Amino acid sequence: MLGNLENLEVVSEAGNSREVLKIFETEVPDIAILDISMPDMSGIELTRLLKAKYPDVKILILSMYNDDEFVINAIKAGADGYLPKNSGLPELSEAICSIIEGQEFFSKTLTDSFFKSYVKKVRDNPLDSIQLLSKREIEILKMCAEGFINKEIADKLFISIRTVESHKNHIMQKLELKTTADMIRFAIKNKIVNL
User: Fold this and answer.
1) Looking at 45, 75, 109, which one is the last position of a domain?
2) Distance between CA atoms of 63 and 86, rounded to whole angstroms?
3) Which of 19, 75, 98, 190 is within CB 3.0–4.6 Å of 105 for a Cys-Cys bond?
């Protein structure tokens, strides 16, 4: 596939991590395309090693493992991109070009799946959704649940009533709530305020 791309030269190929490290001793490529599953060391471990020794090298993971855990571990190791093995030439080409230009690239199917699982996790565990709120929003949510009206909240925090209303709207949007009563129930349920 790579041979069909213009402005790209395959400088070397390797069958395992040891061969990759040996190649890097003599010639450091602009980008290395690694699999996760290799006989002697995982592609994630190899990514971590290469990034530590050659921080400027760009690394694209091309793998059949598309679970969130693998993607997250690859990012933590320093990978600049991640594609499923069934990606076509146009996406592979786009990924290489983006990464060479200094951007990160993750397959749309992976990012969509990752985002959906994150949204489900937040919805299934309301305590996680508190992390979506800023400190000021939590403060206003607490005061609202304690029975303070907008003017009292504004006076206590030295902000305008309009700013209080704006914060309350953001809280309701982030937590997918519809009314002030919903906000109060959320605050009590999640122990932001004690009855």
Assistant:
1) 109
2) 9
3) 98
